[in-house]
Specification:
- 27% of the residues lie in helices and 34% in strands.
- It is built from five helices and nine strands, in the order E-H-E-E-H-E-H-E-E-H-H-E-E-E.
- The protein has a nine-stranded mixed β-sheet.
- Helix 3 packs antiparallel against helix 5.
- The chain is globular and about 55 Å long.
């Protein structure tokens, strides 16, 4: 396995790093649109529950198809989501390899979901196929410490350090917040982005800080 560079590069808000297209600033437009699409589905379910149209149970997994592509929401803590308080978010987007080994992540994903019970600060987990076998995920949680605790779990470490270099060409992770929680009308705000380019040798890892955050395509970095 290629070594991972654990000291990430720091890249500017408007920088497009040479030889690492996964960190091109033009990805923000599509990434924000997709994460807000995942948010809309979560918001719709919560508003139906608030109106008494359906009951949401802790750690309930809801799956369905949209235009032939798989969708999923895991409601870890519906009661907390219905309070309308500010929450934090993690958005994951990976460029998956077309190899037999890459299919291992589908089975491993079940272990990741089952782990949520050990981390009560994780409120929901939404995922969608962007195209067959290419997934994007949105995690809603309460405190920064929630994602740090989960990140250091044995299952997450294996996914990030062992499986990801085999499964993905590259990965983007966006950290941010949602004012008023999923019940409000706000959009996701991305404040920090992390990148892993596994096709580089050694693996290239970088962080971009977004002062003030960005909420939509109209404000993604580099756009006049």
């Amino acid at each position: 396995m290629k070594p991972v560079r654990y000291s990430p590069a720091r890249i500017r808000t408007d920088e497009n790093p040479a030889d690492h297209p996964c960190a091109d600033i033009r990805h923000y437009e599509a990434d924000l649109a997709l994460l807000n699409h995942l948010l809309r589905d979560l918001r719709a379910l919560l508003r139906r529950a608030e109106a008494g149209e359906l009951a949401l149970r802790p750690y309930e997994v809801r799956t369905w198809l949209e235009d032939g592509l798989r969708r999923r929401i895991v409601m870890c803590d519906p009661a907390a989501l219905l309070t309308g308080t500010d929450v934090l978010i993690v958005g994951f987007l990976g460029n998956r390899r077309s190899t037999a080994e890459a299919q291992a992540i589908d089975e491993f994903d079940i272990d990741v979901i089952s782990e949520f019970r050990q981390y009560p600060g994780i409120l929901s987990y939404s995922s969608t196929e962007r195209m067959p076998k290419q997934w994007a995920n949105l995690v809603v949680h309460q405190e920064v410490g929630d994602r740090e605790a989960w990140r250091h779990s044995a299952v997450h470490i294996e996914a990030a350090e062992v499986l990801s270099p085999v499964v993905y060409h590259s990965v983007r992770i966006h950290n941010g917040r949602l004012r008023g929680g999923p019940l409000g009308d706000g959009k996701l705000t991305v404040e920090l982005s992390k990148y892993w380019d596994y096709d580089s040798d050694p693996t290239w890892h970088a962080i971009r800080t977004l002062p003030g955050g960005i909420t939509s395509a109209d404000r993604w970095p580099g756009r006049p």
